[in-house]
Hints:
Layout: H1 14-29, H2 39-54, E1 64-69, E2 73-78, H3 80-106, H4 111-127, H5 134-152, H6 159-190, H7 195-203, H8 210-227, H9 237-243, H10 246-271, H11 276-299, H12 308-330, H13 337-365, H14 376-379, H15 381-395, H16 401-416, H17 420-443, H18 468-473, H19 490-503, H20 510-528, H21 531-537
Antiparallel strand pairs: 1-2
Helix pairs in contact: 1-2, 1-4, 2-3, 2-4, 3-4, 3-10, 3-13, 3-20, 4-5, 5-6, 5-10, 6-7, 6-8, 6-9, 7-10, 8-10, 9-10, 9-12, 10-12, 10-13, 11-12, 11-17, 12-13, 12-16, 12-17, 13-15, 13-16, 13-20, 13-21, 15-16, 15-17, 16-17, 16-21
Amino acid sequence: MTTLVQSVDWLAVAPPALTALVALVLLVADLFLPEARKPLLGAGAVAGLALALLSLLPLLDGDRATFCVEKAGCSYRADHFALTVQLLVLGGALLTALLSFGAVRAQRLPAGEYWFLLLSSAAGAALLPAARDLATLIVALEVATLPSFALVGLRHGERRSAEAALKFFLSSVTATAVTLLGTAFVYASTGSVHLDAIAAALGDIDPQLRTLARVGVVLTLVGFAFKTAAVPFHFWVPDTYTGAPLPVAAYLSVVGKAVGFSGLALVTVRAFPSYGNVWGPALAVLAALTMTIGNAAALRQDPTRSFSAVRLLAWSSVGQAGYLLVPLASAAYTDRPAHALGATLAYALMYAAVNLGSFAAVALLARGRLADFRGLYARNPALALLLAFFLLCLAGLPPGLAGLFAKLAVFEAAIDAGLGWLAVVTAVNVAIALVYYLRWTASLFRTTPEPATDAAPNAAPDAAPDTRDLTAAGGGTDTAGTVTAGTVTAGTATAVREKAPAEAPARRPLALVTALGLCGLLAVALSAAPQLILRLADVKLF
């Protein structure tokens, strides 16, 4: 007789469990803390995420599983795949928390709700890569996603923020409904929700159920493809990133993508390996379309447009999602699917460090337009060099060797799988991306005066600069003397530009500088030892 009583390995579930527990503690503590002591909640969030990261260390020595059922399998498994993704999402959440200190204070966000939502989402993101049944996968996906809606729209009274949250919510709910329908079809076809049991059942399925299973496989992929911002599920990205607080946009660009890609990897490689002829071509086409549309849109960004820096990073993240999809598609055509997944994880780790660093640089400068970065090296050499290094990593150019070797791992996965056409499309898109990454990088070192129309907005010569453009874009770092895009007279623009460089270094939150420094250290370390990226692609994940 099969028992329904399951033992729990608390050490295995510690990373997501600790994150969720700290989230609840912060929510309750918010009720008792006076307003002046609310910053302690942020410190508690950082400490909790650091503790969750440390809880990964005892799990490195082996494969642990819990919530197991006889003959069906385990619902939670802390293998190398799960630990790698948990490192990525918890590390990304920790850096996001450091980015958030200034934004929570400057934009007067409700501190208790903000930190609770951020850690709740991180707990779901940490749970998902260890899930080994469809029910746990869907629950983890929603726990990671639902708090994100509230985070995007947390700025009360901001129309842009509310519209971004509504668009994000409606599109995500639709994708989730389709995914639930797909999982229902898969369960009806196989009689199981555990991934390994599904894989065994699909390998020898009743011919009468084959069509139902195929439809279920395709529909199940939709929700995860939405989270990765793959075309055609990408339309929410630019408006959501510009409407959300800037740390939330950075979080979605890294942790949100990690959630989607880990879910895609599990359902394709673990649950649906026998249907590689269905999901392999679909993911290959999605990869080609995603990188092409993302890079083409990023290429067309107007430097003088409001929020253009954030919008470029948003479209760049869509293009980067296309690169991340290439190894996943390759897994359907190779005898080494785990190697292909390793290439995706290696690229995701590089992307997480440099993309969060790019968002941190935008937040530290407290400007929302690309035109405002012109001549940054003359005003702040250290920040300009760091941002240039991050952009070169994203482009895959030396000295950003981390990005170069990550792209080599992606090309290797495509070529090994016989997807030569996809490797060619990827190479063309890498060349397209070079244009806008190098254009932004070059502008950092130009000293040519900007036209008056490129100046900062709505500020009187003797008044404090208006940061409404940055606030709407999600920034919250209060660096004195910096302003954002808009329309002013030439005299006002000149006055603000002359005052900004002298005042900018006065007030920079330590947490934001720390986040930027950590991202820089990670990017430099990966570029100094790029063989680590290739070695990760060969790690046994399952």
